[in-house]
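Our consortium's second objective concerns turning raw sequence data into structural hypotheses that experimental partners can test. To show how far this objective has progressed, the report includes one record in full. It was chosen at random from the queue rather than selected for favorable results. The single chain below, 395 residues long, was entered without modification.
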Amino acid sequence: MLSVDEARARLLAAARPLDLSESLPLGSCQGRILAAPLASGICVPPLDNSAMDGYAVRAVEAVEGALLPVAQRIPAGSIGQPLAAGTVARIFTGAPIPEGADAIVMQEDTVVEADAVRILRGAKPEAHIRRRGEDISAGQVVLPAGTHLGPAHLGVAASVGATELSVQRRLRVAVFFTGDELVAPGEPLPPGRIYNSNRATLTALLTQLGVEVIDLGTVADTLESTVAALQDASLRAEVVMTTGGVSVGEEDHVKAAVTQLGSLDMWKVAMKPGKPLAFGKVNDADFVGLPGNPVSAFVVFCLFARPFLLTRMGAVWQPPQAFEVTAAFSRSRAGDRREFLRARIENGRAVLFPNQSSGALTSMAWAEGLVDIEAGRTVAEGDRVPFIPMAALLG
């Protein structure tokens, strides 16, 4: 069996970034991958400006108790006159600093007396002033190629005046699901059958990632049907993804079908949940086979498929950052596989979901993250353990 890190390294090494880009209006770029770096042609802010509503002053004059006349009023969007000695300028947040001023006194630290203002707390030079180019300088690359664009990135692009961005074309991912026991929600549930939760989970995970999902539905548990589905999927997408059928049972046909049409490079990982993982090629498409158990499929997607797909999309993937928390549980028996336990933080301690079965999908809905326990480790209550938040796993 491969370790988690070895398996992921192999996947990432095989991930070929897309090299097909398109220009889109800024409002259509949410969730897309930036194809070319974005450099700013301006400084942000473009001028020195006030970070507060208050008064622009010379700090040497704005001492505690000073009474200074208000010579001008500068709202945001207006340019004031040079500040005359011995005066102050009423100024508002975002308004340019007048020539001669070197500090802002907050209005809360003043009292208005007729046409003058009394300083209740003296100002220090540079107080509450945002300098030109403090956030972004002209010529600075504000978004590197490979950025997975979210709301903050689009805001940065807008702040430098960008109206459109060059983004990678959406990666096409075809999915299908194996198992004669699977029934679509809304249909009658015969004895011995189960509703297909993996379809809803996987398509949602892929949609959230920003790929183009090609959903081919459920495929019968026969080698012939699986081969036909793989062939169809490989001609319609850059990546084919399945759940189930990658173990060693007599009814698990995906492994044999991939081998018949292409190649299978790996399919066992020393982890729990989610030991079976298939990766290979079907015609020109990459193939990723997730386990059939719903928790295993979810965890394996987060740890392997998501970084692989992001790299294929042209994104720069960063490993999810874990932080240490105190265990509110014990594990007296060391496992021979690395375990990812569904947990949440309560009173600063990691509490496990009572049922850690790979079939208990409610544990994923309940969990705030995964406790990462290396193979061979025992845990006593009170030990420090790594915790990976779901937000880090799902980006």
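The partners drew two points from this record. Helices lie at 4-14, 151-159, 197-209, 223-236, 254-261, 294-312, 362-366, 390-394. DSSP finds eight helices and 26 strands in the chain. Both points have been shared with the crystallography group to help prioritize constructs.
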